[in-house]
Automatic annotation (TrEMBL):
UniProt record similarity statement: Belongs to the iron-containing alcohol dehydrogenase family.
Ranges for domain Alcohol dehydrogenase iron-type/glycerol dehydrogenase GldA: 10-163
Recorded superkingdom: Bacteria
CDD domains membership: HEPD (cd08182)
Protein name: Alcohol dehydrogenase, class IV
Length: 370
C-alpha cells in the first residue's frame, strides 16, 4: 500500500532504512526550492539526470549502469513525469532477472516478476499533471517507438506532495500539466475499466481542478496549487486502475507532429471526442450499457459544475480559450490527417466506451487540427 506524505518535511521518514540513495532528477532540479532538503537528507546519494524530456532506452540504460556501479539500495525520483518514469524503468531493470530486456519488445508487453519491496522507491513530483507518483506505468522510447512499461513492482512506495515546487513553474507548463490531470480524471470515469474506487478518484480530480484552476493559473495562489497537486495525484490513482482512453490515444501523434506538450495535445482532442460519443451512443461498447454511460456523462458534468454534458463540453472549451491553449495548425493538412488517423494508439482506444474506427478518427482529427 502506497503512503502519501504531504510536505518535504517527511522525506526522512520515507527514507528510513535506506543506506545509499539513487536520486533521479530532471533539468529543473538545480532551481527547486527543495534542493537543499534533498542535499541534506542525511544519506549518501548519487545524482542521475542524463536523460531527455522524452526519455529513450539508451538514457535509461545509462541510469541502470550507474545504479549498479554506485551500489545504491534505494531510489528517489524528483521531477516531472519523465524523471519518475526513468526511475521506474531503472528499478524494474535492476530487480527483474531479465534485466534491461524488460524495457523493450517483446518483454515490455509482458508482466515480468519484480519484487518491488526489495528496493525502497520515493517519488516527489515537481509538476501537477500525470500523477505518475501513484501509478505503476512508465513511458520511454525504443527505436523511435513509444513503449509503455507496466509492473506493480514499480509503483513508488512513498509519494511526497510538496506544492511549493509549483510556484516557479513556467505558466504554459502549469496549464498543460493541469489539463492532463483533468483529462485523466474525465477519461478514467468513462473508461470501460472504471470501478467505484476509480470513479471516486476521478470525481475528486475534477472537482478539485474546477474549484481551483483559475486561481492556480492566473493568481499563482498557494492553496490552489496544493489542491491542484492533490487533484493530479487522484488522477494518477484513477488511471492506475482504468488506464486512459481515446483522448490520450489521439494525443501521441499530435505531440510528435506538432510538438505540443502532452497535456495540451490531450486537451485539444477531448471535447471533440466527448461530443462524438454523445452523438453515437449506439456504438457503446461498455458492457454496462448505453444508459449507464449516459449517466456517467451526466455525473462528470456535475463534477465540473455543469447541468449537462453539452454544458460541460462548452465549459472545457472555455477553459482552453481563457488559457489560450489553441489547436494545432496543419501545414500539409491532407497528408497530416492521414498520418494522424492511422497512428492512433489502439490499446487506449479499447478502453474507450464508444467505438472509434479509422474513418471516424480521420473526421475527428479534421475538427482537432486547424
Amino acid at each position: 500500500m502506497q503512503v502519501i506524505y504531504n510536505g518535504i518535511c517527511h522525506l526522512g521518514e520515507a527514507l528510513e532504512g535506506a543506506t545509499k540513495v539513487f536520486v533521479v532528477c530532471d533539468s529543473s532540479y538545480p532551481f527547486l526550492n527543495i534542493k537543499h532538503d534533498i542535499e541534506n537528507m542525511g544519506k549518501p546519494y548519487v545524482l542521475f539526470s542524463d536523460f531527455t524530456p522524452n526519455p529513450v532506452y539508451e538514457d535509461v540504460c545509462k541510469g541502470i549502469e550507474l545504479f549498479h556501479i554506485t551500489k545504491c539500495d534505494s531510489i528517489l525520483a524528483v521531477g516531472g513525469g519523465s524523471a519518475i518514469d526513468v526511475a521506474k524503468c531503472i528499478k524494474l531493470a535492476v530487480l527483474a532477472k531479465e534485466g534491461n530486456a524488460t524495457l523493450i519488445p517483446p518483454l515490455v508487453s509482458k508482466c515480468v516478476e519484480c519484487d518491488g519491496a526489495k528496493m525502497p522507491f520515493i517519488a516527489i513530483p515537481t509538476t501537477a499533471g500525470t500523477g505518475s507518483e501513484s501509478t505503476h506505468n512508465a513511458v520511454m522510447y525504443f527505436e523511435g517507438a513509444k513503449q509503455t512499461v507496466t509492473n506493480d513492482g514499480v509503483l513508488p512506495d512513498y509519494a511526497i506532495l510538496e506544492p511549493s515546487v509549483l510556484k516557479t513553474l513556467p505558466l504554459y507548463q502549469k496549464k498543460c500539466t493541469m489539463m492532463d490531470a483533468l483529462c485523466q480524471g474525465i477519461e478514467s470515469w468513462w473508461s470501460v475499466n472504471s470501478t467505484e474506487e476509480s470513479n471516486e478518484y476521478s470525481r475528486k480530480t475534477i472537482e478539485l481542478i474546477m474549484g481551483n484552476w483559475y486561481k492556480y493559473i492566473f493568481e499563482n495562489d498557494d492553496e490552489a496549487a496544493a489542491q491542484i497537486m492533490l487533484a493530479a495525484n487522484y488522477g494518477g490513482k484513477a488511471i492506475n486502475i482504468t488506464a486512459t482512453t481515446a483522448a490520450h490515444a489521439f494525443s501521441y501523434k499530435i505531440t510528435s507532429l506538432y510538438k505540443l506538450p502532452h497535456g495540451h495535445a490531450v486537451a485539444v482532442g477531448l471535447p471533440e471526442i466527448w461530443e462524438y460519443m454523445i452523438a453515437n451512443m449506439n456504438k457503446c461498447i461498455d458492457s454496462r450499457g448505453r444508459d449507464y454511460l449516459s449517466d456517467i456523462f451526466v455525473e462528470i458534468s456535475a463534477a465540473m459544475g455543469c447541468n449537462s454534458p453539452k454544458d460541460a463540453i462548452a465549459m472545457f472549451r472555455q477553459m482552453m480559450d481563457e488559457m489560450k491553449l489553441v489547436n494545432p495548425v496543419a501545414v500539409n493538412r491532407d497528408e497530416e490527417l492521414k498520418v494522424l488517423s492511422t497512428s492512433v494508439n489502439s490499446v487506449r482506444l479499447k478502453n474507450n466506451p464508444v467505438r472509434i474506427g479509422e474513418t471516424t478518427a480521420y473526421s475527428l482529427y479534421e475538427k482537432i487540427v486547424h
